[in-house]
Amino acid sequence: MLPFFDVHFQNASSVHKGGRNIKIQIEKSRELCANLINANPNEIIFTSGATEAINLALKGYVEENYEKGNHIITCKTEHNAVLNTCKYLETKGVEVTYLDVDKNGHINLEKLKNSIRPNTILIALMYVNNETGTLHDIKEIGKIAEQSDIVLFTDATQAIGKINIDVNEMNIGMLSMSAHKINGPKGIGFLYKREDINLTPLIHGGSQENNLRAGTYNSPLIIGLGKACEIATKNFEKNQDTLLKIRKYFENKVNEIPSLEIIAKMGKRSNNIVNLKAKGLDAHVFIDKSEGVEVSNGSACTSGIIEGSHVLKAMGYSDEECSNCVRVSFDHETELCEIDYFIKKITQ
Question: What residues act catalytically?
């Protein structure tokens, strides 16, 4: 990224040689992003991150396709970027069905099928829950969407780089991600949009991103995103094996302590997130006072707000139980000694 802050500082939309050379690098980054999910490069739209991508996907699709219907199906445990966008769309006349989940955070696929109406145009379900690691069966949901001629959008922010994603095989129409979840820079991400899907842009101005996202390219961050995708693609299997070993080590340690409970323990989960309920623990005090431990009690977008997690509440946990919960996130570079340190701190 560094040369694009100073040496190659030109505007990538300019027609002079410096600008054209940077645009070539941006298009290389677009190709690297596409390779990670088996998409075509022209289906990648650079955004400021997953939140913007979600807004563009949901608002843009509804506005562009309103004559086809005005009903969206989503889930009560989605990220607030989806839930609050849906609440906004409801003020504009859109009907939204919020599916319930079980104790492990899974939706009932039969209830999903039964929720589909003649005016349903979009299913919006995240791949990996950002608080519990619970996996939705996106491949099966993709089949349901395809059978009903409905577009499937998935927030794959916590899945990218951790789970093998093939947007064509899974019939994913749109997908969002943020670079910082795969060790890239903050403030950049992309929306994958299948070529045959039309959106109304959120931002009007120039013709950047196929007229879907006007504004000067943030060249350094786009280059960083592309490199992060390249590394994630290259090291995918190795990182998967490492993450699985780390999670097993962590959960074996947790299982030795009777007062600790793994949320959604019996559910299908990713290897990078574990949510713990610790009886008698004030999660906010623990997070604030435990030096050397960086965990949270929910999404980073909401963890600064002291209230029960909407995800855990939807799974049947009380406000008091929510206050006893700590979300632990792993990376392939997490060391076992760091896990030992965390276990020691939370036990104390």
Answer: 301
